[in-house]
């Protein structure tokens, strides 16, 4: 699998950021391009603005580490493998959000990598910091 990651320091507490990122059903509030989100237990189905769907399954939620990890497990964007991780870190009194994605085949990584920065922009808007 190929991977990429980005990070951003945000002006909010780690708990404020974690409350937003860990609310599995409200990803459309901050992640651009999501028209609808339906959650069924550990699985959510996203409908994008163009009508395409993505099915994701949570693989790890760690409130202590403030880490959320999930995989694309179905939908219209075909991948051999996918894993995304969101980490909320308290770094010397600053909050850093790290967003990582791994995907195979490598050609699919571009699809997901292009969403990392806009998603962090959306998070800052929801936090009222941009």
Question: Would you summarize the structure shown here?
Answer:
The chain has 130 residues and is α+β, with helices and mostly antiparallel strands.
Structure description:
InterPro entries: Polyketide_cyclase/dehydratase (IPR019587), START-like_dom_sf (IPR023393). Pfam families: Polyketide_cyc2. It comes from Nocardioides marmoriginsengisoli. The chain is α+β, with helices and mostly antiparallel strands. It has one domain (2-127): Alpha-D-Glucose-1,6-Bisphosphate, Chain A, domain 4. Helices cover 22% and strands 48% of the residues. The protein contains 3 helices and 7 strands. A 7-stranded antiparallel beta sheet has the order 1-7-6-5-4-3-2. Strand 2 (34-40) and strand 3 form a beta hairpin. The chain is globular, with a radius of gyration of 14 Å. 21% of the residues are buried.
> What is the CATH first-level class name?
Alpha Beta
- Per CATH, which architecture? 2-Layer Sandwich
Separation, N- and C-terminal Cα atoms: 34 Å
The computed structural class is alpha+beta
The secondary-structure element order is EHEEEEEEHH
Strand content: over 45%
Rg over CA atoms, rounded to whole Å, is: 14 Å
Q: What kind of oligomer do you see?
A: single chain
Helix content: 10-25%
Strand arrangement across the biggest beta sheet: 1-7-6-5-4-3-2
Number of helices, counting only DSSP H or I runs of 4 residues or more? 3
Number of domains: 1
The CATH homologous superfamily is called START domain
CATH topology: Alpha-D-Glucose-1,6-Bisphosphate, Chain A, domain 4
| General shape | globular
InterPro entries: Polyketide_cyclase/dehydratase, START-like_dom_sf
Protein name: SRPBCC family protein
Organism: Nocardioides marmoriginsengisoli
Pfam family, one: Polyketide_cyc2
